[in-house]
Design goal:
By secondary structure, this protein is mainly alpha-helical. The chain has nine helices and two strands, in the order H-H-H-H-H-H-E-H-H-E-H. 29% of the residues are buried. One of its GO terms (molecular function) is calcium ion binding.
Length: 188
């Protein structure tokens, strides 16, 4: 444990805070491990919140299953490790093209499943379903939506969505960020 804490101290603080914020948001049962079951609960919450039926509901489930198996291929046993170990695993892979490719693929798919009306954009009402699924503070959702909507047209394109998500997860040089993809950053 001491070596892990030492390694956590070596990770850029803002980046570690972002990763822990993601993991805490996805740790639905709050047991300190983001598991397959947690991911499937998020998928189920999206489906229920948006009142999705098949094939849209099946696409949501498949998106999260694919992400789960993809991460496990890049970071073996990722889903059975503690949040601290998951952060350390992500840090070890943050510069890896395979890691970036897996994240990008997931974010493209996640954009597609959140674009419930298939118009090529995520509206604010569509965006809210994801925030509800993660039990994030809905009063802050508009701030993040507006941050992602870089051209200020009132909707988020696939490029805007994926760029913001990748910036959140891969940018470890930013000393402070307005990107709050998962709400306020946790501190440790």
């Amino acid at each position: 444990m001491d070596s892990k804490n030492h390694l956590m101290k070596d990770i850029p603080h803002i980046w570690a805070r972002k990763m822990l914020t993601i993991l805490f948001a996805y740790d639905i049962d709050k047991d300190g491990i983001v598991s397959y079951e947690d991911c499937m609960r998020v998928a189920d919450r999206i489906i229920r919140s948006a009142n999705l039926k098949d094939p849209a509901a099946s696409n949501v489930i498949q998106c999260f299953r694919d992400f789960h198996s993809g991460m496990d291929q890049i970071l073996p046993n990722y889903w059975i490790k503690s949040c601290t170990e998951q952060v350390l695993d992500c840090w070890s892979a943050v510069k890896s093209p395979k890691f970036k490719e897996a994240l990008e693929k997931f974010h493209v798919k996640r954009f597609q499943i959140l674009d419930f009306d298939s118009d090529g954009f995520i509206s604010f009402s569509e965006f809210l379903h994801y925030w509800k699924a993660l039990n994030l503070d809905q009063s802050l959702a508009r701030l993040q939506f507006d941050y992602m909507d870089t051209n200020k047209d009132g909707k988020i394109s696939e490029n805007e969505y994926v760029d913001a998500a990748l910036d959140y997860e891969l940018n470890y040089t930013d000393k402070d960020t307005r990107n709050r993809s998962f709400g306020p950053l946790v501190d440790f």
